[in-house]
What does this fold into?
Amino acid sequence: MKVLVTGGLGYLGSIIIPKLIEHKFDVRTLDSLIYGNSLTEKGHLELVQGDIRDLQLLDKVTDDIDAVIHLAGIIGDAAADLDRELTFSVNYLATKQLAEICTKKGLKMIFSSTCSVYGTKPGEVVTEKSKIAPLSLYAMSKLLAEEAIKKQCKEYNIFRLGTLFGFSPRMRFDLVVNLFTAQAIQERKITVYGGLQRRPFVHLQDVSELFIKALDSGENGTYNVGGNNYKILSVAEKIKSKVECSVTVLNDVRDLRDYAVDSSLAEETFGFKPTKDIEFCVNEISEAYAQGIIKDYKEIKFNNAEWLRNIWGHKHLSQDQRES
It folds into this structure.
């Protein structure tokens, strides 16, 4: 089987592609290289640099392909808010175009969505049947993309991912487990805002294995991939148990997103069962620091929004941001 991975050099893609090659898939990836090239894989990997919005290019890179893993997008609330029109174009319109191509060519499409589409559900464990109430442009763009895929594609899997964590060649420290771990290692202190809000957390490697299983599956549908549900403060305490540090809680600023996720449908359908926990992630990132791979988690290349703001500059800010 030959697989196209869009955004294959991103945080998740940089883990999925080596696993696909390990499983003997031929892989082509379409990536803008906006974050650089973090992959060293050779042999069964073909890299195409380009823009996911380029319809002619999309048509070309989907020739002689059996399935598409669609990861490309502007990822995260803060990054999506930098340029709202661009986010709508990349996350929704480009996905709609890709879904139409997949339908025309009879390709299976696997899409990385987000559990953020549920918004805030305090005291509730959300299932795929729970009410959708996105709070951000990012979540809304992913929801619109989901609807386009369901309308267009005959074969598809939509995976609503929890908050990802874990080490990647294209590392991110704008994700809470990674951030807290780096704070603990580098500064010996973790700062928690609020902390009582719940969130589903799932490791990159567990998600990658699920995507690969889905390629060989005849199942269609939308699935929560939440991993384990923890309060934010509990995450900090777990990391503190592994790394000697202090934990400071600030209640004046709090993320409104509060939800726990039921991933049992993915477990029943694909055998999804998370095996990599927060302690595993602490070990990964500690080793990266020890080897000098990571020196300072505050470098802008580790933060999606800061990196995009730096390379795009003023011209890519939305109108209300220009005026603020």
Observations:
- Residues 314-324 have pLDDT under 50 and may be disordered.
- DSSP finds twelve helices and 14 strands in the chain.
- Residues 84-105 form the longest helix (22 residues).
